[in-house]
Write a structure and sequence with these properties.
heterodimer, A: about 775 residues, alpha+beta, Four Helix Bundle (Hemerythrin (Met), subunit A), Alpha-Beta Plaits, Heat Shock Protein 90, 5-stranded mixed β-sheet, disordered C terminus, B: about 90 residues, alpha/beta, 3-stranded parallel β-sheet, two-stranded parallel ribbon, 4 helices, about 45% helix, globular
Chain lengths: ~775, ~90
C-alpha cells in the first residue's frame, strides 16, 4: 500500500513536469513553432499523463486526457491544422487537464460543466465533420441557449445517432453516410454480434502488475470468448527475458455490447497494450490481410507508438537489462493473427533489433539523464559543506595565529584546501540550482485567467526562463511573482477600449524577465499600461494618514508609497488583486529572503517592478568589519569601495548628521554602531573606515565602521528561523574562531536611518553571543 | 527425471525464478507439478511454452502432472491448451 502511494506521489510529480512541458510546448506552438518535434512533445505529455492515470484508475482524468490526446494525435498527423485559434483552445484544455490532475490529487475540484464543454470543444476540433453535433450539443448540456433551440434540432439528433429518430426524419439524414454505415453494421451485429479483438500486450503491461489473463477474463464477462494464442514470437528459453511480453492473442468475442464496452476492458492498460477491435469474424480475407501487413509493415507500424512507450516509462529503460530486451516487444507485434507458420518470426527477427536500436538512439530516455533525489539529502549535503567551509576557515585562522610563513608547505596546502572547499561548495550549490522556468511556466495560465476575469487583453512575454537560482529561493518566488503579475494586469493595464483610445494596441503586454545581476537574481515584471497614478496614490496615502500632507515627495518616493503597510486602493477592490494581500506583504516576504523590491513607473507607458534576490540563501561573500567591539559582515555585493575619510571630506549636516564628499558628490554618513544600537554616540568618522555602499534602488550611503578585518565567504544561518527578525540584520554566520557574527542588511540600514530622524537611541538587545 | 513443483502464484515475480528453475533442469526429462497453481499469468505462460519447446528440441520428455483446475482453466482462457496441455501431457485431471 505504501509502495503504491509512493508510486502515486512520483506520478504526480511527473504530472507537474509533464503539464509544464505541455504548456511550454503549446506556448512554443503559439509562437508559430509548430514543427513535428514540438507537437510530438505536446502529445507525449498528455499521453503520459493519461497512461499513468490509467494505472491508478483515475477515470475522469483518463477520460479527459483521452479526448485531448485524440485531438493532439490528429494535429500530429496533420489531419487537423494547427491554427492560432486551435492552439488557444489547446491551452485552455491544458488548464482543464491541470485541474483534473489537481483534483485527482485531492487538491480542489474540477468544474464538471467546464470540463464537459471543453471535451466537447476538443471533439469538435478533432473531427470537423462531426462538428455540428458536439457544438450544438454543448450548449444544450451546459446552458440552454435560445439560439440552439431553433437552429439545432436536426443536428442534435444526428449527435444522438438514434435509429428511431432517423426513421422519423429520414430525409434530413441522407448525406450522413457514416450513420447509415453504422446502422448497417448494427444490423449485421444483430445477427452475429461477433467481434475480433487483437491483443498485443507490451512488457509494461506486466510490469505495472496488469495481467492478460484478467483482461481475457473481463472480456469473457461480455460474452463467450475464444482466444487464439500466437506464441511464435517467444524466443528460445535461454534467450527469453522472463519479464518481457512476447505472446499475443486474437480473441473472438460474441457480445451484445458495443465497441466502447470492449474498449473499457482495456482502459487501464491503454498504452501498455496494442489493441485492435474489429467487427465480425477474423475470416480468412482478414487473416490474409493481417498476414500481409505483418510481413513488410512491422517497422512502420511500431515506429510511431514505440517511442511514446519509452518516454512514458523511463523505468522501463532502467529495468530492461539490455537493448535486446526491447527487441522482442517489436518482434511480437508483427503477427497479430495466430499463425503457426514458422517463417513469419524468422523474417521479422532481423528487422527487430534494428528497430530497437533506432528507438534507443531516437529517444535517449528523458528519465535516464535525471536522478530523482530526496531534496532533504541535498539540503543535508549543503549543510555539511557549510560546516566544512567554517571548519576550513577556523583551520586557516589557527594556522595564521601560529605565524606560519605564507610560503610554507602547510600554508600552501591550506590554500589548496580553501580552493577545493570552494569548488565543492559551488558544485553542491549547482545541484540545488534550478531554472526559474518551473515558476515561470505557471504564469501564462495565471495571465489568461486574470485577463479574462478583468476583461482585459493581455499577452505575457517571458524572458530568461533558464536563469538558475537556488531551490530555496525558487520555492519562494512564486507568490511575489503571482502577486506582481496580477497587479500588473489588474491595475497596470487599461481596458481594451481605453488602450485603443490612447492609441495603443488593445492587447497589453506584460513582461516577466529573470536575469543575473552582480551576484543576485533580478526578476522584472513590467507592463505597458497606464503607469502609476501618482496624484491618486499621494492623496490616498495622505487620506490614510500614512504620510503627512505637507511632505514633499519625489516621483520615485510616491511610487514606493504603494509598499507601505495599510496602503490599498480600497475604493476599487477587485476579485483579482484586492484580496487583502497588499504590496507591503509582498515587500516583507521579499525582504525576509534578503531581497529587495522596487518600482519605476512612467505615466502612460507602464510600470516595472524589480525584484532582486540573492542567488542562494546558503552562502555569501562578505566583508568582515568591526563595529563597537562587535564583528559584523557586510555583503560584498553591496560595497562599492572602502576608504578612510580625511577630515576635510566630512561635512556636518543638521544637528547630528553629516555627509561625506566622495569625488564630486555628497553621500550621507551612517554610523552602523549607532543605527544598530551598539553605541549611543558616534566617534568621529575620520577615526574609522567608511564603506561606500549602494542600495538596490541605486541610492548610496557611507557606512562607518571601526575596522576592516578582511573579506571572506560566510555560511548564512537564518536569524528568523533560530531567533527572530531583527531590523538592519539580514542573517547571522559563524566565523572561523567560532563566534557568531551578524550579517548586515545594507538597504535596511540605509532606510532605518532615513525613516528615523536622529534621536537618543534606546539600547536594544541586538548582540552577538 | 526431475520434478519441478510450480508455486501457487505464477505472476510477474515468479517468471524469473521459473525460467531459472527450468534452465537448471535443462537436459533432463522434467515433470512439472502444476497441482497447487491458483494463478497463472501471461509471463509464466510464456516461460512454460518456451520450456516445452526447448525440451522438445532436446528430445527430452516434458510433462505437466496433475494440473489444478485453475491452471487448466487459465490455460484454456489463454488459448494455450493445445500448446501446453497437449497429448504428451501425463495425468491431466481436468
Amino acid at each position: 500500500m505504501d509502495e503504491l502511494e509512493a508510486i502515486k506521489v512520483t506520478f504526480f510529480q511527473e504530472c507537474e513536469e509533464l503539464l509544464a512541458d505541455l504548456e511550454g510546448g503549446l506556448l512554443a506552438m503559439q509562437d508559430g513553432n509548430d514543427d513535428g518535434d514540438t507537437v510530438n512533445a505536446v502529445f507525449r505529455a498528455v499521453h503520459s499523463i493519461k497512461g499513468g492515470a490509467g494505472a491508478f484508475g483515475l477515470e475522469p482524468l483518463v477520460r479527459f486526457a483521452h479526448v485531448f490526446e485524440t485531438l493532439l494525435d490528429a494535429v500530429r498527423s496533420n489531419e487537423v491544422p494547427s491554427t492560432p485559434d486551435l492552439v488557444a483552445t489547446l491551452l485552455r484544455a491544458s488548464d482543464v487537464l491541470a485541474d483534473h490532475v489537481s483534483s485527482a490529487r485531492g487538491l480542489g475540484v474540477v468544474d464538471e460543466a467546464v470540463s464537459a464543454a471543453m471535451a466537447a470543444e476538443l471533439k469538435a476540433c478533432t473531427d470537423p465533420n462531426a462538428a455540428p453535433a458536439p457544438v450544438a450539443a454543448a450548449p444544450v448540456v451546459e446552458a440552454p441557449a435560445f439560439e440552439a433551440v431553433s437552429a439545432a434540432p436536426a443536428e442534435v439528433l444526428i449527435g444522438a445517432d438514434d435509429a428511431l429518430d432517423d426513421d422519423d426524419l429520414g430525409f434530413d439524414f441522407q448525406p450522413m453516410t457514416i450513420t447509415i454505415d453504422e446502422q448497417a453494421a448494427d444490423v449485421a451485429a444483430a445477427v452475429g454480434n461477433v467481434w475480433t479483438v487483437s491483443i498485443r500486450p507490451k512488457s509494461d503491461l506486466y510490469r505495472k502488475a496488469n495481467e492478460t489473463a484478467l483482461l481475457l477474463r473481463e472480456l469473457a464477462r461480455l460474452g463467450p470468448i475464444e482466444a487464439a494464442l500466437d506464441a511464435s514470437a517467444i524466443p528460445p528459453l535461454d534467450q527469453l527475458d522472463a519479464e518481457a511480453a512476447y505472446a499475443t492473442w486474437t480473441v473472438r468475442l460474441e457480445t451484445e455490447e458495443d465497441e466502447n464496452a470492449i474498449r473499457e476492458v482495456f482502459e487501464f492498460v491503454d498504452g501498455d497494450c496494442d489493441l485492435e477491435i474489429t467487427r465480425g469474424e477474423a475470416l480468412s480475407p482478414d487473416a490474409a490481410l493481417a498476414a500481409l501487413l505483418a510481413g513488410p509493415a512491422p517497422a512502420a507500424v511500431e515506429a510511431a507508438p514505440e517511442p511514446v512507450v519509452v518516454t512514458e516509462a523511463p523505468v522501463e529503460i532502467k529495468a530492461a537489462p539490455e537493448p535486446v530486451a526491447a527487441a522482442p516487444v517489436v518482434e511480437a507485434a508483427p503477427a497479430p493473427v495466430a499463425a503457426p507458420v514458422a517463417p513469419a518470426p524468422v523474417a521479422a527477427a532481423p528487422a527487430a533489433p534494428a528497430a530497437a536500436k533506432t528507438q534507443q538512439i531516437d529517444v535517449p530516455g528523458p528519465g535516464q539523464s535525471v536522478i530523482r533525489v530526496d531534496p532533504e539529502r541535498i539540503d543535508r549535503l549543503i549543510d555539511l559543506v557549510g560546516e566544512l567551509v567554517i571548519n576550513q576557515a577556523m583551520l586557516a585562522q589557527r594556522v595564521g595565529e601560529y605565524g606560519i610563513a605564507p610560503s610554507s608547505n602547510l600554508a600552501m596546502g591550506l590554500d589548496e584546501l580553501e580552493q577545493l572547499t570552494r569548488e565543492i561548495q559551488d558544485s553542491v550549490m549547482a545541484i540545488r540550482a534550478q531554472p526559474v522556468k518551473s515558476v515561470f511556466q505557471r504564469m501564462p495560465r495565471l495571465v489568461r485567467e486574470v485577463a479574462s476575469m478583468t476583461g482585459k487583453q493581455a499577452r505575457l512575454v517571458m524572458d530568461g526562463e533558464n536563469t538558475e537560482v537556488d531551490k530555496t529561493v525558487i520555492e519562494r518566488l512564486s507568490d511575489p511573482i503571482t502577486h506582481m503579475l496580477r497587479n500588473a494586469i489588474d491595475h497596470g493595464l487599461e481596458s481594451p477600449e481605453e488602450r485603443k483610445a490612447a492609441g495603443k494596441n488593445p492587447e497589453g503586454v506584460v513582461k516577466l524577465a529573470a536575469l543575473h545581476r552582480s551576484g543576485r537574481i533580478v526578476i522584472e515584471v513590467s507592463d505597458d499600461g497606464k503607469g502609476i497614478n501618482r496624484e491618486r496614490v499621494h492623496s490616498i496615502a495622505i487620506k490614510k494618514g500614512l504620510i503627512s500632507p505637507e511632505l514633499q515627495l519625489t516621483d520615485e518616493e510616491i511610487d514606493n508609497l504603494i509598499f507601505l503597510p495599510g496602503f490599498s486602493t480600497a475604493d476599487k477592490i477587485s476579485d483579482v488583486s484586492g484580496r487583502g494581500v497588499g504590496m507591503d506583504v509582498v515587500k516583507r516576504s521579499v525582504q525576509a529572503l534578503g531581497g529587495r523590491i522596487s518600482i519605476t513607473s512612467r505615466p502612460g507607458q507602464g510600470s516595472t517592478f524589480t525584484l532582486s534576490l540573492p542567488l542562494t540563501l546558503a552562502v555569501l561573500d562578505g566583508m568582515v568589519v568591526d563595529v563597537a567591539g562587535e564583528t559584523l559582515v557586510v555583503p560584498l555585493a553591496a560595497i562599492v569601495e572602502s576608504l578612510r575619510p580625511k577630515p576635510e571630506e566630512v561635512r556636518p549636516l543638521g544637528p547630528v548628521g553629516s555627509v561625506l564628499a566622495v569625488r564630486d558628490s555628497f553621500v550621507p554618513l551612517i554610523d552602523v554602531g549607532l543605527t544598530l544600537g551598539y553605541r549611543e554616540a558616534s566617534p568621529p568618522p575620520t577615526e574609522g573606515v567608511v564603506l561606500l555602499v549602494e542600495g538596490e534602488d541605486g541610492s548610496r550611503a557611507a557606512l562607518v565602521a571601526d575596522a576592516i578585518h578582511g573579506q571572506r565567504q560566510v555560511v548564512i544561518k537564518s536569524l528568523e528561523q533560530n531567533y527572530q527578525q531583527v531590523d538592519g540584520v539580514a542573517a547571522a554566520t559563524i566565523l572561523g574562531d567560532g563566534r557568531v557574527a551578524l550579517i548586515l542588511d545594507v538597504d535596511a540600514v540605509i532606510s532605518l536611518r532615513r525613516r528615523e530622524p536622529p534621536r537618543p537611541v534606546e539600547p536594544t538587545l541586538i548582540a552577538a553571543e | 527425471m526431475t520434478v519441478l513443483s510450480l508455486p501457487e502464484t505464477l505472476d510477474l515475480k515468479a517468471s524469473g525464478p521459473l525460467k531459472a528453475a527450468f534452465l537448471e533442469r535443462r537436459g533432463d526429462a522434467v515433470e512439472v507439478d502444476a497441482g497447487s497453481v491458483r494463478r497463472l499469468g501471461g509471463l509464466c505462460l510464456q516461460v512454460l511454452l518456451a520450456a516445452k519447446t526447448a525440451w522438445a528440441a532436446d528430445g527430452k520428455s516434458f510433462s505437466i502432472r496433475a494440473p489444478s483446475e485453475a491452471f487448466v482453466e487459465t490455460t484454456r482462457l489463454f488459448g494455450a491448451e493445445g500448446a501446453l496441455l497437449s497429448a504428451d501431457t501425463h495425468g491431466v485431471q481436468s
